[in-house]
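Reopening: structure tokens for the flavin mononucleotide complex, inputs below.
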Amino acid sequence: MIFKKKEKWKTLDDVLRGSLKMLDRGARNFTHPFHWPALATCGGDRVNLRTVILRDFLKSDRILICHSDFRAPKVSQIQNNPAASWLFYHPKEKIQLRISGNVTLHTHDSLAEKQWDSTHIISRINYRTTYPPGTPIQEPASGLLDSILDKSSELLHSQAGRENFAVIVCRFNHMDWLILRATGHMRAQFTWDGNKLKASWVVP
Ligand SMILES: Cc1cc2nc3c(=O)[nH]c(=O)nc-3n(C[C@H](O)[C@H](O)[C@H](O)COP(=O)(O)O)c2cc1C
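Re-run output (same inputs, fresh job):
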């Protein structure tokens, strides 16, 4: 008997729902490929791209969240230009998502507090380099004081990096979905104007 694989992506609605589900899984599960997107920001005359961890996805508001050191270059880039793009790729599903929108920064509000509370104590050490990320140094080094690297004492001071902690919150209004298939690639685009959605299949 021949089993024909059921078509998963028959409608634009299938694509949208499936994409949002993958973002949701990516935010919750560190083994999911969508947990490690690339985030692009504009700085001067350059586009700047880096890997980040997707920390949260608020589906009803179309919001993607990641964390950063407030002193990092990406933060001043966002302060100058809030436009940002995210790139996700799932190698097994062969699905690429390109998402763009505007970013707001949160440091001292309830959202930032909630995100800080959700961080693992061990990752809080990332916000404690003596000098800002990107500062030139003479030799390869973590930028952390030796006393901080003694993690046993660190656990007692886990609030210490809080002042350098920032939350990058991106409300997106455009999503480009692409799936690679031997039988022909497929691509779709979704654009929101407020909550009004325009969706279309496009040539891959
Ligand atoms: C797997 C991986 C995950 C990363 N996650 C983050 C992150 O969530 N937030 C962050 O600020 N930097 C993260 N980084 C470091 C950034 O890629 C980047 O090097 C750093 O943030 C400095 O970027 P900037 O100079 O553009 O601000 C990650 C790097 C890797 C390799």
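Residues 99 and 175 are 4 Å apart (CA to CA). Residues 12-28 form the longest helix (17 residues). Marking as resolved unless the reporter disagrees.
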